[in-house]
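Table S2 (text version). Query chain:
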Amino acid sequence: MLAPDSYAPLIVNGFSAYLKAEGSLSHVSRYWNDAGFRTRRGGTWLPHTVCRVLRNPVYVQANAEVYAYLSANGAALCIPEPLPPNHGVYLYADRRINHSRFTDLHGVYAICAPHLGLIAPEIWLGCQNKL
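Corresponding structure-token output:
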């Protein structure tokens, strides 16, 4: 199992690999599994768990376009002015709301995270469009 400090390059490469024409969720899951990268619970990656990572805005270097995408999908934006550049995004919602966690964002709050994101906004948005 890899040390947590070695996850970042694998996450970045996973987003880029998925966005390529031949990229698929299965391709990324094989790549992460072959690299010894394990899920949070120590399991192997499956296409649906890769999809959850690729949809999660916590990894993006958020900018105005990312926040516009989240807002267009129903999220209420809770961001400071001026917008801090390149920070990730946390999503908060009432767990009793029964809808897709990252696609139907009605009733969800998008909040600027304190950490810097790993994924360029154009790559993250490209993955969202492909998904």
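Notes on Table S2: The mean pLDDT is 89. DSSP finds five helices and three strands in the chain.
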